[in-house]
Amino acid sequence: MRFQHDKKLLSTILVFTDLDGTLLDHDTYSLAPARELIDTLQECKIPLVANTSKTRAELLSFQKSIMLQAPFISENGAAIHLPKTQFPRQPQNSVESGEFWVKQFSQPRAHWISLLKQLAPELQNLTQPFSQMSVEQLCQETGLTFDNGLLAHQREYGEPLKWLGSEDEKHVFIDKITAQGGHVLQGGRFIHIGDQVNKGDSMIWLKDLYNQTSKQNHTTIALGDSHNDIDMLEAADVAVLVKSPVHQFPPLRRTTNIIKTQNKGPVGWVEGLLAGLDILNNQGVSHG
After folding, report:
1. CA distances to 147, 188, 229, 239 from 251, in Å
2. The listed CATH number (3.40.250.10, 2.60.120.10, 2.40.30.110, 3.40.50.1000) that belongs to domain 7-105+198-282
3. Cα angle 51-287-54, degrees, rounded to a multiple of 5
4. Are 224 and 232 in contact (CB under 8 A)?
5. In this structure, are residues 160 and 137 in contact, taking their beta carbons and an 8 Å threshold?
6. Are 266 and 34 in contact (CB under 8 A)?
7. Angle at 268 between CA 262 and CA 274, to 5 degrees
8. Beta pairing class for 238-243 and 258-264
9. What is the pLDDT of residue 167?
10. pLDDT of residue 287
């Protein structure tokens, strides 16, 4: 696959993508239909930044599996992981962690587990936190293999929950968490309790870092399928909503440079990303 787009434009594009249900098939977790386009992005040196609820451990495994060398954003914007090979100078207010600089935006997971334990028992009984699931239970809920379930269990910041109550009870639960300084995000399978962070703010921070280090203004394409992608989709220059097999498109306030795919999962991801590149190439950017 070759891009028939302006080379200067391609050199300043950043692609941010959700994984489960977007780049990865909702049921099989396969990205096979997107493999060729991923390879083309890498050949063109267009960063493909995973921006997901997944853990650092999961993302390290994912990046290795497809030989992807790019920054990644874990746990719904809680932390940005920057390869030292690509960012030799340590960014301000980041910490060193092995081969990465890490910019953290959230308190640790233990804080949120403690907060959940302080809720009234009738509210606690409406949830099943990750921390109370065995790896086998987690695999049953998600369809992950045992090895991938182990990686998903290694959370550092927020705490995902399986919701067991009604929608009305969920509103009460969210109000209680919010009153304690927490933030609730609805993902594809779980709700996520954590700090007042989101995928959009982390995307903007990383875009600004690219602008500073390269002395060029970058343009963003974001791809997602769920409510926890809304902040990222609103903040991107082009928003690609990938059709889901299990829920409707997330609602957006913006009205320009929006693509809603006809296809689902990685097939829809390819459809949407190519359409997004065409928008930037042919029409310019009218958002952001």
Report:
1. 34, 14, 10, 12
2. 3.40.50.1000
3. 5
4. yes
5. no
6. yes
7. 105
8. parallel
9. 92
10. 41
- The predicted structure's pLDDT at residue 283: 64
Please give the positions annotated as active site. Answer: 18
**pLDDT score at 5:** 67
Q: Which amino acid is at 181?
A: G
> Are the beta carbons of 189 and 141 closer than 8 angstroms?
yes
Q: Using CA atoms, how far apart are residues 238 and 257, in angstroms rounded to an integer?
A: 5
| From the candidate CATH numbers 3.30.980.20, 3.90.1010.20, 3.20.20.150, 3.30.1950.10, the one assigned to the domain spanning 109-194 | 3.30.980.20
Q: What's the CA gap between 19 and 38, in Å, rounded?
A: 13
pLDDT given at position 12? 93
Give per-10-residue mean pLDDT for the chain (288 aa). Answer: 72 96 94 96 95 96 95 96 96 96 96 93 92 94 92 94 93 93 83 93 98 95 96 98 95 97 98 95 57
| CB neighbour list of residue 178: distance below 8 Å, 6 or more residues apart | 184
**CA dist., res. 253 & res. 233, Å (int):** 10
- The structure tokens listed for 73 are 């954003």
Sorted by where each begins, the domain ranges of the chain are: 7-105+198-282, 109-194
Please tell me the distance from the alpha carbon of residue 155 to that of residue 38, in angstroms, as a whole number: 27
Q: What is the pLDDT of residues 83-130, one digit of tens each?
A: 999 999 999 999 999 999 999 999 999 999 999 999 999 999 999 999
Strands annotated E in the chain: 13-17, 48-51, 72-74, 79-83, 95-97, 100-104, 127-129, 159-163, 183-186, 191-194, 219-224, 238-243, 258-264
